């Protein structure tokens, strides 16, 4: 079961709900931060769950729009949901493999490049943490269910832990640099997202290294014919109409006579 299917099935399990209300809950709880659920994909998932017998719907005919139908979970759907949730909360999962892969390959970057990337990473964490805290507080003010509150509390705790880790790690990384390493410049208040690049434009950046030109090999001439002569180049209707010099317009030609001849030599 995908994350989108599980998220929608969980919402339907809370009680009968219309399609447009499911979309409202997704937005209120910020589920798009975890799953890729759009309006069209949401109804696709609902129809898939209904075909599998995990949810049922009633109300307006499907031709009038799925948003006007009310969905509720079936006993089979509730059993599948229980199994999926129990598996999720009993098994720790790795969710930072991409970042860890980058850490394992720091040696390919210069210190200035690594520093720029870490600052961007830390500031992005600060931005996400502030957004998560605001959304969490909004849900608390609206007396959200305990399980929803727990979901946001866990997300905030993870962001806080990651932010504390990257702050400590940057200090440790700076401390282990050789003494001759260039000093860290004054940190900007905020790095614009468009400039959050791994490689700064230093003079010897790999991005400035010249690339090799492609060696254009001359076209291989066609083999000679049996009499030793080179066959003429094959022409097509398009090549006949293509001027030799593209910068010089082709002279105007009157095709009236050609068209008349073509009519006279038509199929008998």
How would you sum up this structure, described in words?
With 268 residues, the chain is mostly helical. It folds into 2 domains: 3-90, Arc Repressor Mutant, subunit A (Orthogonal Bundle), CATH 1.10.10.10; 97-204, no CATH class. The chain has helices at residues 3-13, 19-28, 39-51, 75-90, 97-103, 111-141, 146-175, 237-241, 256-264, and strands at 17-18, 55-59, 69-73. It is flat.
Structural descriptors:
4% strand; 268 residues; single chain; 9 helices; 3 strands
Topology diagram in text:
Elements: H1 3-13, E1 17-18, H2 19-28, H3 39-51, E2 55-59, E3 69-73, H4 75-90, H5 97-103, H6 111-141, H7 146-175, H8 237-241, H9 256-264
Antiparallel strand pairs: 1-3, 2-3
Q: Give the CA-based shape.
A: flat
Q: Give the N-terminus to C-terminus distance in angstroms.
A: 68 Å
Mean pLDDT: 76
The low-pLDDT segments are: 191-200, 236-250, 255-268
SSE order, as H and E? Answer: HEHHEEHHHHHH
Estimated radius of gyration: 33 Å
Q: What count of structural domains?
A: 2
Gist of the model:
The protein contains 9 helices and 3 strands.
């Amino acid at each position: 079961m995908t994350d989108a299917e599980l998220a929608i099935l969980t919402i339907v399990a809370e009680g009968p709900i219309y399609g447009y209300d499911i979309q409202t809950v997704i937005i209120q709880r910020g589920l798009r931060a975890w799953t890729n659920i759009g309006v069209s994909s949401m109804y696709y998932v609902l129809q898939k769950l209904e075909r599998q017998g995990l949810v049922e719907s009633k109300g307006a005919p499907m031709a009038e729009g799925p948003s006007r139908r009310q969905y509720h979970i079936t006993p089979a759907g509730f059993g599948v949901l229980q199994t999926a949730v129990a598996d999720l909360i009993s098994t720790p999962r790795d969710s930072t493999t991409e970042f860890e892969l980058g850490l394992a390959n720091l040696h390919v970057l210069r210190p200035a490049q690594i520093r720029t990337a870490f600052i961007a990473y830390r500031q992005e964490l600060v931005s996400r943490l502030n957004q998560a805290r605001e959304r969490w507080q909004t849900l608390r003010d609206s007396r959200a269910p305990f399980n929803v509150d727990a979901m946001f509390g866990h997300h905030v705790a993870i962001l806080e832990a990651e932010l504390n880790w990257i702050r400590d790690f940057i200090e440790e990384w700076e401390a282990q640099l050789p003494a001759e390493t260039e000093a860290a410049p004054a940190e900007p208040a905020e790095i614009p997202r468009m400039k959050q690049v791994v490689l700064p434009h230093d003079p010897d950046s790999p991005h400035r290294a010249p690339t090799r030109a492609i060696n254009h090999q001359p076209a291989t001439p066609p083999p000679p014919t049996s009499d030793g002569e080179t066959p003429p180049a094959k022409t097509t209707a398009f090549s006949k109409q293509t001027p030799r010099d593209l910068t010089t317009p082709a002279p105007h030609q009157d095709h009236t006579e050609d068209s008349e001849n073509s009519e006279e030599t038509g199929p008998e």
